[in-house]
Amino acid sequence: MKQKISITIEENTIVCLNEVVDEGRFRSKSHAIEFSINKVLRDNQNSNQELEQNG
Q: What average pLDDT does the segment 24-50 reach?
């Protein structure tokens, strides 16, 4: 289930966000933000796994 949240973002980031949505790369700003957060979380998890394997 999705939940609404409130965030504060720099104006130039919003401009870039609107551009990628307008280009059709994402359905909405929410979609772009959720995709980006999930990518950061996956990358972080992968980095942690690599550290555990090499540590």
A: 93
